[in-house]
Amino acid sequence: MNILNFVYRVSNVLKCVEKFLIGIMAIMAIILIVGETVLRYLAPAYLPDWGAEVTVYLVGWATMLSLPSLAAQDKHVRADLVVDLFSRRMRKVLEILVLLVGIVFCAIILKAGIDVVQFGLRFGEISDSSLSFPMWIFYLAVPFGYGFSLLRYVMLLITRLSESRSSSLTS
C-alpha cells in the first residue's frame, strides 16, 4: 500500500470519528439546554447549577474537534482572492507554504495547550459548580483539536507533494 492510500484511509477514519463525536456532543448539549429550559419554568427548584457549564464544555470540545475537519476540507482561513492572481505553478507553491505555516501554527498552539493542561493538573483546578469538574479535561480540548489539525495538515502536505510529484512526472 502506498503512502497516499494510507493517508486517504486514515483521513476517512478520522473524519468518521470526528463527525460521530461532534454529533454526540451537540446532541448532549441540546438535551441539556432544552432540559434546563423546561426545568426553569416547570420546576426551578430542581435546576442543577452545572447544566450551563457542561453545555459550554461540550460545545468547546465540539468546536475544537471540528478544526481538523476544516483543515482536511481546505476550509481554513486563507486569501483566495490574492492567491488566484498568481500563476498555477505559484499557487501550488503558495499552497505548500500555507500548509507549512498551518503545521507550525498548530504545533505552537498544541504546545501551549499542553502547558495549560499541565497547569490545570498541577494545581488541581476545578469548576465552581457542585460538579467540581476537573478543568484540565476541558483544557485538553485545545491540544486535541490542534494536535489532530496538525496531523491533518501533515496529511494534506503529503497529499499535495505526492500530487505535485506525480503531475511533474507525467508532464
Q: Structural class of the secondary structure composition?
A: mainly alpha
Number of helices: 6
Give the biggest beta sheet. none
Radius of gyration: 21 Å
The gross shape turns out to be elongated
By DSSP, the count of extended strands is 0
- Report how far apart the termini are: 25 Å
Report the mean per-residue pLDDT as an integer: 90
Helix content: over 70%
**Quaternary:** single chain
Helix and strand topology:
Elements: H1 3-42, H2 51-72, H3 80-83, H4 88-122, H5 135-139, H6 141-170
Helix pairs in contact: 1-2, 1-6, 2-6, 4-6
Quick recap:
By secondary structure, this protein is mostly helical. It is built from six helices and no strands. The longest helix has 40 residues.
Feature tags:
80% helix, 6 helices, single chain, 171 residues, mainly alpha
Model description:
It is a single chain. The chain is about 80% helix and about 0% strand. By secondary structure, it is an all-alpha fold.
